[in-house]
Design brief:
single chain, alpha/beta, Rossmann fold, seven-stranded mixed β-sheet, five-stranded antiparallel β-sheet
Length: 235
């Protein structure tokens, strides 16, 4: 399987940046992920990410680390950080940029160590894929926590992407699936990824899922665009 995301990161790292990653989803036809954005500094990050990095403490697992921007910031602050990503290219870029501890794996297959902070930024909860997987996903994350550990994650309520009626309600398709479930494909320099499932979870749905899985869920910050940062801890 072609590591489309990793290819783009490696090109940028090696000074061969000429185009961005195109995304195609079941929600909108085409969008882009600007590759330089994945290499952003703390000052260039949205408030939600900055807040999460300020709250991170102890031994940190940066899940879906990408180019390692969050890991590097925390490492430079003196924290012990492990950057985890399923992309070979992402991990090689993390190493090239100076991240000291990296793991190439998917989070669901990882169980080597316990952490004080699990970081899932850029809608990291999306890795659950579908809402029906959220409970198992949260349980697995909880199993990686130290007793007083925390999970810091952000997501969005994508209800705004649906049409509104005159009463201010939203026209959400009634096909039995959760409206935050999206199928994505990525394309870079003519190479396409396989389609993959991704889920955006609204805060109420997340809080209910946490409640039924023995986790506290605290809303830390709401962003400007239906996005939010939440902190999850063991009950």
């Amino acid at each position: 399987m072609i590591d489309v995301f990793g290819m783009a990161l490696k090109d940028y790292q090696n000074g061969q940046y000429t185009e961005d990653i195109k995304t195609f989803s079941s929600l909108d036809e085409e969008d882009v992920i600007p590759v330089p954005y994945l290499f952003r500094t703390f000052d260039e990050m949205p408030k939600i990410e900055q807040k999460a990095l300020e709250l991170a403490r102890g031994n940190v697992l940066d899940i879906g680390a990408g180019a390692g921007s969050h890991s590097l910031y925390l490492q430079n602050k003196g924290l012990k950080v492990t950057a985890l990503d399923n992309s070979e290219g992402a991990i090689s870029v993390c190493k090239a940029r100076g991240v000291e501890s990296t793991v190439k794996n998917s989070i669901l297959n990882y169980s080597e160590e316990n952490f004080d902070t699990l970081l899932l930024l850029m809608n990291g909860v999306g890795l659950a894929g579908k809402l029906k997987n959220l409970s198992a996903f949260l349980q697995h994350l909880a199993s990686l926590l130290q007793p007083n550990g925390q999970i810091l994650l952000d997501s969005s309520d994508i209800v705004y992407m649906f049409e509104q009626d005159d009463d201010g309600g939203y026209w959400i398709p009634d096909d039995g699936s959760y409206y935050g479930e999206v199928e994505f494909e990525m394309e870079y320099k003519g190479h396409k990824s396989k389609p993959f499932d991704w889920v955006y979870v609204d805060i109420n749905t997340l809080q209910n899922a946490c409640e039924s899985n023995g986790l506290n869920c605290e809303l830390i910050l709401s962003g400007e665009h239906y996005d939010y940062l939440a902190k999850l801890t063991l009950k």
